[in-house]
Amino acid sequence: MNKATEKMSTATRLRLSGLVLSILLVAFSVIGIATKGLNFGLDFTGGYLTEFTTSVPISKVELAAKISGYHPDNFTLSAQSSQHFQLREAEQANNSDWLSALTQDETLGADVVSSSYLGSQVGDELFEQGCLALFAAMIAVMIYLALRFEWRLALGAVIALMHDVIVVVGLFAWLQLDFNLTVLASLLAIIGYSLNDSIIVGDRVRELLRLDTKKQQASVNTVIDESIKSTLTRTLITSGTTLATVASVWLLAGAPLHGFAIALFAGIVVGTLSSICIAATLPQLLGLRHENYQVKVDEQSQALMDMP
Questions:
Q1: pLDDT computed for residue 174 by the predictor
Q2: Which stretch of DSSP H or E encloses residue 266?
Q3: FRET partner for 114 with CA separation of 20 to 30 A, picked from 47, 216, 264, 307?
Q4: 206: pLDDT strictly greater than 90
Q5: How does pLDDT run across 108-163, given as a tens digit for each residue?
């Protein structure tokens, strides 16, 4: 076995290992979604959200203990920093005693930054419309891929998209991060980003299969490895620059966009993985052959010959 063959065999093993990893990630994510569920944000559940700061650092546990003395109902306290907090209450808990107590406590120096209310009916409508938008995007992508690729490549790209969405949602389930409208919007962005990567790899596979249809000197395995190799630099550069931008949003844009940035960051990472290990590898396991595109080439040649 020569060095080139060894290199291709190593690339194939890495692709198959990545496919196994992707399957494990999906299983892990489904378990998290089924057992822990999503921590829906105020956009979907409705209720009151109060954001406030303190003049002195204090731990979330200590502050929650102080608030519990004035707040008989359940609440969720999240810390953006040691002096910046958010408190979420249910729609029925219209209690302002805790807020008055905090602002009057001179040792804390609490100051309200913002306070908002969203009804549960509006939240239900937003969730329903967001899910419909996500579903419509998936259907449109499936139709586009069905028209663009042979069914094996199209199916690989669709499964890669589903993998990316499930893994990101699973991450939010396991970490119990707020799942709000901005996170739902990031899922739509992830679908577009992952689709772009999958199409680039798929186009290259299709191109090399067509070029090699008559000689058929290279195996499908070699063709896929060469396709990934020729697009890998472009993929890494694009993913790297996008990750740098998303990381800046994560670190500098503030708490309201943390969920959006985390979802996009995770989606870009798993999207790069899926475009190589699922969108390119799965068609090979489904029996992709040179003949699948030989027929199309022959039909195009015949059509050109029949033209007057």
A1: 93
A2: helix 258-277
A3: 264
A4: no
A5: 888 888 877 776 666 677 778 878 888 888 888 888 888 888 888 888 888 998 99
pTM for the model stands at 0.77
Distance between CA 255 and CA 137 in Å, rounded? 28
Q: Are 8 and 221 in contact (CB under 8 A)?
A: yes
Contacts 24+ apart (CB under 8 A), 180-184: 180/40, 180/41, 180/42, 180/43, 180/44, 180/259, 181/41, 181/43, 181/44, 181/126, 181/130, 182/256, 182/257, 182/259, 182/260, 183/41, 183/259, 183/260, 183/263, 184/130, 184/133, 184/134
More confident call, 304 vs 272: 272
Please give the structure tokens belonging to residue 141: 């992508």
Query: 214: Cβ–Cβ under 8 A, 6 or more apart, which residues?
Result: 294
Tokens 């992707």, residue located: 22
21 CB contacts (<8 Å, ≥6 apart)? 273, 277
3-state helix, strand, coil in the chain (%, to 5): 70, 10, 20
Query: What are the structure tokens assigned to 181, written together?
Result: 């409208």
Six-digit token string for 106: 């001179």
